[in-house]
Amino acid sequence: MPVKVVHIVSLGCPKNLVDSEVMAASLTRTGYRLTDQPEEAEVIVVNTCGFIEPAKEESIEEILRMAAWKAGGKGPCTHLVVTGCLAQRYGKELAAALPEVDLFLGINETPRLSAHLASLCVTGPVRQHSRTRIGRPTYLMTASDRSGRSLLSASAYLKIADGCSNCCAYCAIPMIRGKARSRPMDDILREAGELADRGVREVIITAQDTTAYGADLKGKPTLALLLEELARINGIAWIRLLYTYPAHLSEALFRTMAASDKICHYLDVPIQHCDPAVLVAMRRQGDKALIRCVIAQARSLVPDIALRTSLIVGFPGETWRRFEHLLDFTQEIRFDHLGVFTYSREEGTPAASLPSRISEQEKERRRGLVLEQQQRISLAINQSLIGSRQEILVEGQGELEGWDGVGRCRRQAPEVDGVTYLRGVRTAPGQLLTGRIIAADDYDLYAEPL
Asked: Which domains are present in the chain?
């Protein structure tokens, strides 16, 4: 087979990024060459997100943008393939609406992309009914699926499970990804060891619900046990935990975090809301008292822990008083980092038929009010860090005038939190150093090395 050059566009969450890396590994193992430039590619693959309406719109826009390289004759592109959550959820409808796309692949085809491309490039155009490969989502990656992929970053996401069984009323993930499926612990540890051998210093634990890990496995290994074993791997310096479910957090997990120097004192715990009526309508487990108790326990056992949360505003039935309840609660808790989504009505979910809908304009107004409040909280927390010593992972050269480098400290997750700008740093990415925080703004920190 003549070497084909492939460009992969990865949209959506870190879990989808891992799937893109699995596809990239499949391609490189079978002789394809990857490029970061769509204008160089003979085949373009768009790995889509289909979680909420803005993500779906972004995916469609990106598909059409990549289709221009195929149709416009501006480059060598001859084939366009769409994968991921949007393809899994709407593959047949998309095939009818987007004739520019040669193939739509569902979740199960993630590790078989190279085989599909080989067939596609040999046979050429396919008939309408053959343009989709969508089945019931059962795929669960293994360490072998991702092996061989060269990583250019000192940080890597480690997906420990796929799917979700929580069935929140607003969420389409169980329909798209299926029930929760945990990877065997030895396979996860094998992949983590391989990442360390390839120079990864920080592994970031991800899944739809990381705290559900092991519930479906023989012996029911826990997330706390998995973290203990990961901390034994030489070469890994930081372990970061994302996507925890508040009702599933445990004292054992917090004690494990406190006992290991490698596990970052950082916890991503999306609470979504705190009002009792809204939580019931959302079909969320636990209530405000449980959330408050869990956070108090985390701060008691891990005193310097940085907490991140995600919220949904504008859910059906969220009266102004219920929204104020949420605003007051986040002011009380003072999360270090906070993200806000406006409610997206997703067909097929229980919440889609709920009455008392709220206008998009009002949703955005409420989102803005939460973010304005959080901006003040974040600024105060960051300024309280001035003078403190922080371990910093260098990520590259700084683009801010007067600051030579940029990195993150343990309290900052990539992409969603702020960064730490560094003065007088010429070291290579991936290095760890100790710095003193000398300035802070709403979201970013500024440090000089010690």
From this structure: 5-133 (3.40.50.12160), 151-268 (3.30.750.210), 303-384 (3.30.750.200), 389-449 (2.40.50.140)
CA distances from 27 to 5, 37, 85, 142, 444 (A): 10, 16, 20, 16, 37
Secondary structure of residue 48 in the 3-state scheme:
strand
Question: How do residues 249-295 score in pLDDT, each as one tens digit?
Answer: 999 999 999 999 999 999 999 999 999 999 999 999 999 999 999 99
3-state secondary structure string across 236-280: CCEEEECCCCHHHCCHHHHHHHHHCCCEEEEEECCCECCCHHHHH
Contact of 152 with 62, CB cutoff 8 Å: no
**What is the C-alpha radius of gyration for the chain, rounded to an integer number of angstroms?**
22
> Residue type at 367?
R
Q: How does DSSP assign 126-188, residue by residue? A: --GGGSEE---------HHHHTT----SSEEEEE-EE------TT--HHHHH-S-EEPPHHHH
DSSP state for residue 38 in the 8-state scheme: G
Q: What is the number of other CB atoms lying within 10 angstroms of the CB of residue 387?
A: 8
Residues in the chain: 450
Main-chain dihedrals φ then ψ at residue 391, nearest 5 degrees: -80, 135
Name which of 382, 395, 399, 400 is nearest 428 in CA terms.
395
Distance of CA 404 to the CA centre of its chain: 28
- What gap in Å lies between CA 24 and CA 401, rounded to an integer? 35
Render pLDDT for 10-27 as a digit per residue (tens, 0 to 9). Answer: 998 889 999 999 999 999
Cβ neighbour number for residue 133 with a 10 Å cutoff: 16
